[in-house]
Amino acid sequence: MAAAILLALAVLAPFVWWRAWFFWRNPARCPPAGDALLCAADGRVVYVKRVRAGEVPVSVKGQRAMRLLECAPVLDAARGDGVLIGTYMSVFSVHQNRIPVSGEVVLRVHRPAVRNVSMARMMVYTLLGREPYDEDCRHLIQNERLTIGIRTPGGVVLVTQIADAWIRRIRADVGVGQPVERGARYGAILLGSQVDVFVPDSLGFRVVVRPGQAVRAGETPLAVRAVGP
Q: Of all residues in the chain, what percent carry a pLDDT higher than 70?
């Protein structure tokens, strides 16, 4: 009996430690100097996709493009051309999300889902280093999403939190009309999940991260101002 109790404690103790503290940790972050757009989430970059007129190519069976419907008011006004960068957060990542660029929140749209599907496929692909990491990942078109739009002098940067199958809620502690600062914490998603950042061409920035790269929210540059033609 004593051996069984010790075994149970040995199994449960790491889980309790992870769930009670490790998952909720919020380490201090120091944004680098300059005006580079910063990553909004810790984790691993899973794609860098060109966006044309608000449509994103996705590698999901039966799908050729994903329309960012919740972002339509912003994208339609600017033709919707730009780059979409996805960052996958595993259960070991810091799950506090941060603002990529200073500005004013002009959009906040929550798109619920009938049923969230698991991101297990993307987790396995990232662990194995198999590209494309988003191949047949239905969560990209099916799961719950919460998008905020941040107005800057060059255009609106969009940040989308995507829930996993085990998520009960996405938290984004900002509202329309609120000023936000680059690198500041603004929300979180529980367990494994994903955060996408849309960088419009109008900003004149070039993306400097690549698929497979490990990144840190509020510190790793996502895109920098382009120099020259």
A: 74
Supply the residues annotated as catalytic: 193
In a domain, 19, yes or no: no
Query: What are 229's two structure tokens?
Result: 């033609």
Tell me the C-alpha distance between 2 and 4, whole Å.
Answer: 5
Number of domains in the chain: 1
**Residue 173 falls inside a structural domain:** yes
Q: Render pLDDT for 121-170 as a digit per residue (tens, 0 to 9).
A: 998 999 899 988 988 888 888 888 899 999 999 888 999 999 888 766 78
Residue 195 domain-assigned (yes or no): yes
User: 79: phi > 0 → left, psi -120 to 50 → alpha, else beta; which?
Assistant: left
Domain of residue 210 covers 29-225
Contact 207, 222 (CB under 8 A): yes
3-state secondary structure of 211: coil
Cα(88)–Cα(32) distance, integer angstroms: 22
Diameter over CA atoms, the chain: 73
What's the CA gap between 163 and 225, in Å, rounded? 31
Burial of 177 (0-12, 13-18, 19+ CB in 10 A): exposed
CATH code of residue 78: 2.70.70
CA atoms in the 13 A half-sphere facing the CB of 162? 26
Residue 31 has a CB neighbour count (10 Å cut-off) of 18
